[in-house]
Amino acid sequence: MSQKARQMKRLVIFSGAGISAESGIRTFRGSDGLWENHAIEEVATPQAWQRDPDLVLRFYNERRKQVIDAQPNKAHYACADLQKSFDTNVITQNIDDLHERAGSRQVLHLHGEIRKARSSLRDDLILDIEGSEIKRGELCPQGAQLRPHVVWFGEAVPMMEPAFEISAKADIFVVVGTSLNVYPAAGLLFHTRPDCEVYLIDPDPNISVPDHVTYINEKASTGLPKLASILLERPN
Ligand code: NAD
Questions:
Q1: Domains recognised in the chain with CATH numbers
Q2: Phi, psi of 24 (to 5 degrees)
Q3: pLDDT in tens, 114-128
Q4: What is the CA 205 to chain-centroid distance, rounded?
Q5: pTM over 0.85
Q6: Is residue 224 within 8 Å of residue 201, measured between CB atoms?
Q7: Ligand 1 within 6 A of 202 CB?
């Protein structure tokens, strides 16, 4: 690690669907708890996969095409800018890759990555998807059907432990565009050190803002660049 990296403060951005809303990817909450007109149980649970794998594959194939066509917005770019002065980690609940495409280098996906496929037999067998679709009959090298590399409701969240470790070391923790409804991910907000500066950017937060949190009532595409320029300009 370079001398500069050793001196840098640790900054964590914890993002949810709201950061990608202005890139044209809909959130859950904006749509009455439905995800693109589907009940969650219909498309995003292990039971749905057992019941109707064609529907589940079709649903995620559509979401994947949407993600491929979308572009990062100013909020994603502001997260990448922060890397200039901070040892920056992004912890995202999003399954899109807009943080990476904006230039963020350390991105942990709590709920998986839609542009990857996974063996339905072995969780650690993860493959890139050629094109935009996983098709019925497309198999992993061990002969099992490929499924989207996403965490469905009711499944374990294996990246939670590293996310807790990263959050506990943060000097600055920025929460953006998440309803903080989905656990265990939402619990990260309460795993910061007592002396950590915590910010919440959301135009319509779903929780009453805890005392240790500075609330910024803005959309991600304006709130994050503003906060980033304050943090980048002050002596750190
Ligand atoms: P959520 O839909 O429950 O909540 C979205 C939050 O974003 C709300 O609090 C809303 O007020 C806020 N918001 C809306 N527009 C915003 C904007 N322009 N700027 C800032 N904030 C804005 O989302 P969640 O908490 O991330 O939980 C949803 C789950 O659904 C996640 O687990 C995620 O995996 C999945 N999901 C992912 C995507 C994606 O990858 N882009 C999209 C939809 C859902």
A1: 1-24+72-111+156-236 (3.40.50.1220), 26-69+116-150 (3.30.1600.10)
A2: 90, 10
A3: 999 999 999 999 999
A4: 17
A5: yes
A6: yes
A7: yes
pLDDT score of 108:
98
Burial class (CB in 10 A: 0-12, 13-18, 19+), 170: buried
Cα–Cα dist 230/225, whole Å: 9
Query: What would the two tokens of residue 21 be?
Result: 């809303």
For residue 217 and ligand 1, the question of a CB distance below 6 A is answered with no
111, 149, 191, 212: the active-site residue? 111
The pick from 27, 74, 217 for probing ligand 1's pocket by mutation, whose C-beta has the most ligand atoms within 8 angstroms, reads: 27
Mean pLDDT calculated for residue range 147-158: 95
149 catalytic? Reply is no
20 neighbors 97 (Cβ within 8 angstroms): no
DSSP 145: B
